[in-house]
Design brief:
- With 130 residues, this protein is an all-alpha fold.
- It has one domain: DksA, coiled-coil domain (Four Helix Bundle (Hemerythrin (Met), subunit A)), CATH 1.20.120.
- Helices cover 59% and strands 0% of the residues.
- The model has no long low-confidence stretch (mean pLDDT 80).
- Bound molecules: zinc ion (ZN).
- Zinc ion binds next to helix 5.
């Protein structure tokens, strides 16, 4: 996939992301104002707290979606976008246009639907790739 296309997908992903975060950002700002003294800044060390907060604000489905969107944006940054996380085949662009944050090709997805346990690939250890 060329850079121009990746950029198109990235802006699509970013607009999905800000849509998902829209309401949360508002309530976060509220918290920030009321706890301004204690909250120095939302940097790396606070990231896990921030995630937990988000998890509470978003519904389960939206939370999953947000994680997939973040992962896809990361993949674009690494130049690995559009590759199935399971079989490493290229995901058809037609599919990415419909679901830009998809992680799997249609074949793997349909296999996971048949056998939901296989979907646990999502939980694999990210430290593996050092
Ligand atoms: Zn696949």
């Amino acid at each position: 996939m060329n850079k121009k296309k990746m950029n198109q997908f990235r802006s699509q992903l970013e607009s999905i992301r800000s849509e998902l975060l829209g309401d949360v950002e508002k309530s976060k700002q509220h918290v920030k104002e009321s706890e301004a003294g204690q909250m120095a800044d939302i940097s790396d060390h606070a990231a896990s707290t921030y995630s937990r907060q988000l998890e509470g604000e978003l519904g389960e489905q939206e939370w999953q979606k947000l994680k997939q969107v973040d992962m896809a944006i990361e993949k674009i940054a690494e130049g690995e976008y559009g590759v199935c996380a399971q079989c490493e085949a290229a995901i058809p662009e037609a599919r990415l246009k419909v679901v830009p944050y998809t992680e799997f090709c249609t074949q793997c997805l349909s296999e996971m639907e048949k056998n939901p346990k296989a979907a646990s690939i999502n939980d694999q250890d990210p430290l593996e790739e050092d």
